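ERR on first pass: missing label on line 2. Operator R.T. fixed the label and resubmitted. Corrected input:
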Amino acid sequence: MSSHDVTGTTLVNHWQRGVPVYREPVLTPTMLFFAALAALGLILALVRFFSPLGQFSGMNDAYAWGIWKTFNVMTLTALGSGPLAIGMAAWVFNRQKLHVVMRTALVSGFLFYATGLVALGFDVGRAWNFYNILFPWRWNAESAMLEISFCMPVYCFLFLAFENLPLVLERFYYTGSDATKAFLKRWAPALRRIYPFMLTGAYVLPLMHQSSLGGLLLLAGDKIHPLWQTPFLPLLYLLAAGFCGLGFLTFLLLITCLHYSRPLDAGIMGELGNLLSYVCFLFLAVRFGDLVWRAQLGTAFAFDRMSLLFLFETALILIPAVALRRTAVRETPRTLLNMAALACLGGLFFRFIPTTIAFSPAHNARYFPSVPELIMAIGYISLGILAFGLAVKYFAVLPGEIKDWNYMFRKVRQRRPEAVRI
Amino acid sequence: MAASMNRRQALKGMVGIAGTAVGAMTARAEEHPAHPVAAPDAVAMLYDNTICTGCKACMPACNEANGLPPDTVLSGGLWDMPADLNSKTKNIIKLYNEPDASAFAFVKRQCMHCLDPACVSGCPFGALKKSDWGAVTWNSSLCIGCRYCEVGCPFDVPKFEWNNWNPKVVKCEFCYDRLKKDEQPACTAVCPTGAVIFGKRTDLLEQAKERIASSPGKYFESRVYGEHEAGGTQVLYLSKVAFDKIGLPKLGSTSIGHYATKVTSVIYKWLSGPIVAAFFLGGLIKRNWNRHEAERLKREKETGLPDQL
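pass 2 clean. output:
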């Protein structure tokens, strides 16, 4: 069962299980470059923790939120919503064939959230008061900010971490001593018993906080341009997380599989493209339905600065939505990559614009991130890229074929020196 | 027996904690009416820029009452000369000049003490809260410095100490400490002309309307700014020039807290939305999980490899 695309690359339907990337150096110059950026960002972040915010950012009283919040958290966690989007498709809507790409989504999603939370931790001015989260009677439950600051860490470090646990334990199982093996074998059934319950939490929580990220902006009211300020912002932010999660996983699978010369699976990539197109259409339907309901279609097609920005953003989402309806586009890696990237970009635009570009406080203040602010933001992203690069080499993250499985973890290879890959 | 008792007690404890959490989640989730009504004891300030002479006596009085340092950036280190409300200035008198110099007007800016403040709705741990007499106060031990108040405030009032390692949110707190001592705020106490006066909101609103009625055409739009803006505020303005010219934004009469929470307050009422979602998704997940498990055993036998989660 294989199909050929126009450029001649063979797409085989052979993704069967997660297989680590091996026979590759762990620390390549690229990885070292990202490590250096991450180190620079984190060192700056530590210095920032003991210094005033003003010296490290271009933020001011009118633009009180800079890119750490608006980009690293509010925008990039949309790309990190793969575990929600793919997980819902696989476990709730029973798209069985997507299980094999779940691990790629889980690892990348965890890293987007974790680095976003690091960014948030160094962004708040009085982080030491965060202990108040331990006392429910001090919560202001109607605050979207409270919902996010409670829900996001719990989701990331409890539910997502739990979902990522099997792939870590698997490595211990294959590389560990006999005692470790016996221990893991004994506890595996218990893990499987609670797994479906943890899955439920792992979908309810992001449904809550991904919509609350949009809910945050409701309070800004008239400061946000009417093309973006709408009571539907929470739903739109959630749908954007949906198609960004799908789009980014498609993008990530394509570039990592190309980079590590892995064969692709036409059936699964096609399915991802198919779902991506549907969620994009759903998003656009709500987006335009809302504009019609609020009688803002005229604003949308006024062809002024904000209208053009809106039309550009919409085009970025509409083009992949339409193009991916065609099987040929879905099953050609190059076009699929382009369309997934466009959709992600459109989602990022939608998430980012109302926080900054379409945000106009009463004062004539300006905001542009300062150099240390940018270095820290890039540092957090580099940390995620570095960790992903390491994860695919140490753990069975990327989807592959069963025939490659026997050569996987290092210790297994050492025991079988005769097993040379053809 | 003892073990089962312990387990029951533990369970009771867990239910108790969960109950407290749910209770706390909902107890504070008060209704946000679109047009809030001021409490009977709500205090207010009335500022009338047809009376204000721009003497700025209220500014040092405010600094003194609140222990604020002078802002000497513009004056070259000589005297207090803020350009606008900032982290050293909770109260300011500004001058508006018509471009053709045909008219001018002063304006006094400070926190508006909204009836349903956006900053209070957004503050995650209730560091900003609507205290007695409606004063909006800030509690340093609950604030995490997220600056959501600055994003939410339609009047751009809360200011953040960007140059302090231990930053505070600086805003007019209606001289809450003085109110508690039965004194009026420093700015109204010191005002020599009566341009800004202190009183109960109902009384001041009535007085403002009397002033409008007694001199028709004197005041812009013959109305009181703050009676309905953003659901109503506890600082009221009478102006001879357009309100937006003196920096008071055009706002609807709906409270921002109402706009921001009208949908979520229904979904999150008693956490019903998330609970319903959890049962619905959980049911489907469990069904698909069981199917997956049945297939898993078959697949494991075929491939000889354990299934991956």
